[in-house]
Amino acid sequence: MKIKILHLFYDFLNLYGESANTLAFVDYFKKQGIECELIKHSLGEDFNLDDIDIVYIGSGENKKIIQAFKSISDKKLVFENFIKSKHLLITGNAIRIFSKEMLNICDTEVKLLDRHKVYESIITHLEIKEDMIAFYNNDCELNTNEKPLFKHLFSKNKDANLKCESFYKNNLFATLSIGPFYIRNYCFLKYVCDRVILSKESDFVIKEVDFNFEKNALKTFISNYYPNYK
Amino acid sequence: MNTIIIFICKIIALIGKKLKRGSTLPGFLALKFNPNIFKHFKLNDTKVIVVTGSNGKGSTSSLICDCLRKFGYSVGYNDSGSNLSFAILTTMILNSKITGQIKTNYLVFELDERYSPIVFKNLKVDFTVITNITRDQPPRQGNPEIVSEIIKKGLNNTQLILNADDPMLQQFTDKNIVHFYDIKDDKQFYTKNIYDKPNIAYCPNCYKKLKNDYYIFEQHGKYHCKCGFSKPEAELSANYIDYDRLVIMVENFKFNLAYPSLFDVNNTMAAILCLKLLGFELDKISYIMNFRTTDNKIFSSYRLNNKFIYTINNKNENSASFNQSLLLVNRDKKEKIIVIGWKEISRRYEFNDISWLYDIDFEILKELNVKHIYCVGIERYDIALRMKFAGLEDKVKIYEDLKCACIDLKKDTCNIYAILNFDFVEDFNNYIRREDEN
Fold this sequence. Notes:
The structure holds two protein chains of two kinds. Chain A is α/β, with parallel strands linked by helices.
């Protein structure tokens, strides 16, 4: 089995260290003994999603989001078909590209704000039920009719949106959270990667992966900053 | 009325000085009393220099101020540590008569990028240095585009001093007279880009990927695009850089550096060009700058037993700053230990965003003969995790307590590079030098 990951606009939409998310996928697949190829796509390059298993796209400055959209504005149907069987993972304001105002793949409106909303939340996924951390730093907020991807548990900040700023549609998973989301939230990384593996080979035996650093980082973070949130 | 406000604020400043508190309170109150009070001040022959940007504002502005004072001129400078608009106003209050007449020959301001529009709107600024625009304090600044737009909105009738090697700064050249400095020491150039996460990889005009004949650091270097966007010619160049002797050569003159970093080369060049534009000759600037000493607050090095300890005061949440520190470490080819840590990510706000760790190219450390990486402090596991994804997992040692880390560090014989946030620097130097803990 070989898994191919396409990091769309890797050096154009590259705010907040989000390129690290693709490192997390590659690392997990390698630890499963699966050959993995990471394709880094630049603005202006054409791409073919036929043999791609995961597309990842991250946050960018607003002018760059618009430019990125323009460069793939003819690919609405391609992405709509893609997410029926393959995974499209979106973090931060890259959601705009797939929202009603742009590619219109999701029933989601993205409202631009005149300031940045910055906050941190403890969230969870309904199937995984583990604590996860989301950090938001966006000048937009979502109004979506798609199903929520995560459930908000707690935030200290008044800017926190209790609707959790995330959604999914088929295999499109979107969160307004920024940064190395899949590195910090190893349980969700595992969830997504296992879905990808089993969608390609349903009888693949998933190996246990050592998430020692990730577990300690998450546990220490929550105990330091949210000791009593439960 | 404005005269009374200035008089009251001067009294407050005097009281504050005695109590060693409230250094920017006078400006804060003056703005409360009259939001337009900036316009009351009369500059006459006083020249105003502003230094803003993501890195090096304090170093560059203090160097300019220091040189002007050594030349025998009076300078008003906001050296209280605050660089917001009320700090600027406090400086003006302290250096004016109660009529608002500025008393000094020069005003030099270190200015926070986000407050630049207020200052430019209200003051005639003769020269503005923009040191750089980079990813910096994301929870506060958002992203470089936001910071750039704020500065651009404010720039008004000033002459800019910019680094020609940095393509990010070319966005400011539209409506202003611009003076450029650059680096022309080809020993600093390299052709294969080692930085994977640049602030700018594309032409800002046509969005094609920029080409580089050479790089100096991150996206800095000789860049060009088919549309015509390219590195401009510089008025002043550093032709030779010697980090061991802490000197640069500009034309045929030698200038001292405060610490062995490319940032300080750029800060020094900006200051030299600013002073030259103010009318000072290079030979005289060189003479004055040769009294410059190492800035121990930012960088210190000392021998301990048979090894050298290098302490780098490194700003958190700023990947360019960290990449600069790694560049410094890169010059040492011997086996070394690196220490990374902090007490808190930022003292300005409660957010504990660690995303900036992944904007730093720690992958460079794989080639640098590193024995161990000590990950210290409250986010030690997040630092360790970053090292894991940089391919350095086997080098990691994790410590909650800096003191314990230093006890183990002293047992090793390698040189040590401690890349620390300011809140760990003093403690680190104290613990590592302590004789009784072995």
